[in-house]
Amino acid sequence: MSRISLSRHLITQQHAGTISADLRLLIEVVARACKAISHAVSKGALGDIMGEAGTGNIQGEAQKKLDVISNEILLEANEWGGHLAGMASEEMEHPYQIPGQYPRGAYLLLFDPLDGSSNIDVNVSIGTIFSVLRCPDGMAGTEEAFLQPGTQQVAAGYTVYGPQTQLILTTGNGVFGFTLDREQGSFVLTQENIQIPTTTKEFAINMSNQRHWQAPVQRYIGELLAGKTGVRGKDYNMRWIASMVADVHRILNRGGIFMYPRDNREADKPGKLRLMYEANPMSFIVEQAGGAATNGYQRILEIQPEKLHQRVAVFLGSKEEVAQVTQYHQTDL
Ligand code: P6P
Predict the structure, then answer these.
(1) How much distance in Å is there from the Cα of 219 to the middle of ligand 1?
(2) Between the CA of residue 27 and those of 75, 131, 197, 232, 311, what are the distances in Å?
(3) pTM score, two decimals?
(4) Were both Cys, which of 111, 199, 219, 227 would link to 130 (CB 3.0–4.6 Å)?
(5) What's the farthest any 2 CA atoms get from each other in the chain?
(6) For 143-153, what is each residue's pLDDT tens digit?
(7) pLDDT tens for residues 244-257?
(8) How far apart are CA 179 and CA 182, in angstroms?
(9) Cβ < 6 Å from ligand 1: which residues?
(10) How many Å apart are CA 206 and CA 217, to the nearest integer?
(11) Cβ pair 51, 183 in contact under 8 A
(12) Which residues does the record give as Mg(2+) 2 binding sites (predicted)?
């Protein structure tokens, strides 16, 4: 296959009418920022990027230096291009206002600049997740503009910083994978129309929370653990990297189901993961790849957001398994 760069792929999509010139520019700018983050990540202890930043974020979490660095890289790369009406980040309480000296555009960019940051200091794969919405007319600069269901996304993607740096992207016409060629400094198309297998023998969940799960999840996981001897009639394998980007990337490539259920201890919190810049972009990608994504009760993409940083329970991946655990939520009421 002749090498097709991300730029050539996006120009082809623009000529086909599936994306606008400004959306193409936005995606290229985000990809360039991810290259800079990849460079910072790969320095490890040789760069001043490890450990705590000594600050906290809106989530009440201690920020790693790389959380802050990655957030700043994305803000600085995107604020001047004229393609955005605003940005929102896991690391910032309120949306970022495009500085007055720069033109504003039609799109809203949301991101988790460095997902899985607890893995930074132990050299395990981490990533950047992003989601793109159109800004409703006259709402530039407002938080309300961001509160759109995931079905309104015009693009979503993630970059996984692992043995390779790979960018996974959808603009609503399938899922494409690009691998960073460090010698050329460009993302090269390496996967087209990625499809998630409908069935699987692999599940991803943090088992240490088992005592806090609700009945439908207890029943479902119990069946997986029973393996051949139980109703599912097959043995399952478990993987948990504690980096959503890495777990979802595995599922995108070989199937599986990723779960972060709600925790009985926190009735006010429907889950750990954030809807707007983790669950929604990943759900868009997974559905575009033929998988499914629910909160146990409905498609994640159909949830009407009420707050920028609201959390959600997540069950996503191979269609058959997501349907099964979702069905138990409907019947085991
Ligand atoms: P736990 C990382 O902090 C994250 O937000 C996701 O990337 C990951 O899937 C999950 O939390 C890991 O959670 O409870 O296993 O640390």
Answers:
(1) 22
(2) 14, 10, 27, 42, 26
(3) 0.96
(4) 111
(5) 66
(6) 999 999 999 99
(7) 999 999 999 999 99
(8) 9
(9) 115-116, 118, 206, 242-244, 247, 272-273
(10) 12
(11) no
(12) 112, 115, 278
Q: How many Å apart are CA 318 and CA 289, to the nearest integer?
A: 10
Q: How far apart are CA 261 and CA 221, in angstroms?
A: 11
Question: Do the beta carbons of residue 129 and residue 245 sit within 8 Å?
Answer: yes
Q: Which class for 225: exposed (0-12), middle (13-18), buried (19 or more C-beta within 10 A)? A: middle
Residue nearest to atom 4 of ligand 1 (CA): 116
Q: CA 223 to CA 323: how far, in whole Å? A: 14
Ligand 1 centroid – CA 18 distance (Å): 34
Ordered by where they begin, the domains of the chain are 6-191 (3.30.540.10), 202-330 (3.40.190.80)
- Residue 270, token pair as written in the block: 């429907």
- Please say whether the dihedral angle defined by the alpha carbons of residues 113, 114, 116 and 118, taken in this order, is positive or negative: negative
